[in-house]
Amino acid sequence: MAGRRAGVANLCGPGFLSLDPTELKAQLAREARALGFDCIGITEPGTIEKAGAHFLEFIATGGHGDMDWLASQPERRVDPRGLWSDVRSVIMLGVNYGPDQDPLAILKQRTRAAISVYAQGDDYHDLIKKRLKALARWLVATAPSEVKVFVDTAAVMEKPLAQAAHLGWQGKHTNLVSREFGSWLFLGAIYTTLELPRDSAEIDHCGSCRACLDICPTAAFPAPYKLDARRCISYLTIENKGPIPQEFRKAIGNRIYGCDDCLAACPWNKFAQQGREAKLGARHELRAPELAELARLDDAAFRALFTKSPVKRIGRDRFLRNVLIAIGNSGDVTLADEARRLLDDANPLVRGAAVWALRQLLERDEFEAMQADALNKEPDQSVREEWQAAS
Prior knowledge:
alpha+beta; 8 strands; single chain; 4-stranded antiparallel β-sheet; two-stranded parallel sheet
């Protein structure tokens, strides 16, 4: 669930192929691995019609929530030629970001924050795009052509294309699963005008397994292979701009940015090896930060802590909303002081979450003693409703 911004690079050449296509593909694979990609596959543009139909159904049922960019110009997503009519081959690439420790262990440390594995290091969009551009430049220099590169930033259905290119298959949790890397792959795409040899599509290896579906804290999967983003913790903590809906707050636990439960539950992860280089690895300070420390971040400190991190894009206010939900779920009364202090925050989203956290941590009479005075002073209706919800 990462940010959407322009992610296209045009690299042009005369548009002819002098090398044998099979040899070019072999050289391309060697160059990709030298640049740090762990897998590569090639497919043709018109291979994801079925996935396109599922995507249109997803949009029609409103499963995308407030992610309006997904519903914008769907024809550009359901077929790569809708985005670029000249594309002849789609090169799909993956980078293993398998964690070096159990990502679910942090959920038992209720006074610490759980940040999704992919967001514990530098923003993968920037890291992977640099590699993609380098590979695209090599391709253009080796076989003059036109190319465009994408990293989860444009109207590209990366996961169905990755399955068509034999990198893995879309599991029941709708994420890509690899027999080599489990559920831990960053994906990138290169569209090219070259006609390159295709790989066969990967088949589904999920079988009767339901581990990813059954572990979901908010029942975000109405059926296998179908996601209702409006119930997904990644959506709720990242894309959702308003208050966290009441019905999901307890289930969020201490997850303050994203959720790894369905990924971590996948049995295919047993074949995955931790493959992140140092520059793709987790920062120590983001592995299990204290909720109390995060609650004290002002805007400048927030930006400093999350420089180059995807977390930075949600902003300090939404981030503190998430931290306060986690504080409310911590069961640690000492953290009530942090929530009390944030009752005076300038942002109503933060104040409202602070009210909820206090309602979870304080005895009823203590909370009600604060309530009447707070209602008299609070100008924002959404925050007033948080105070009134305890009555």
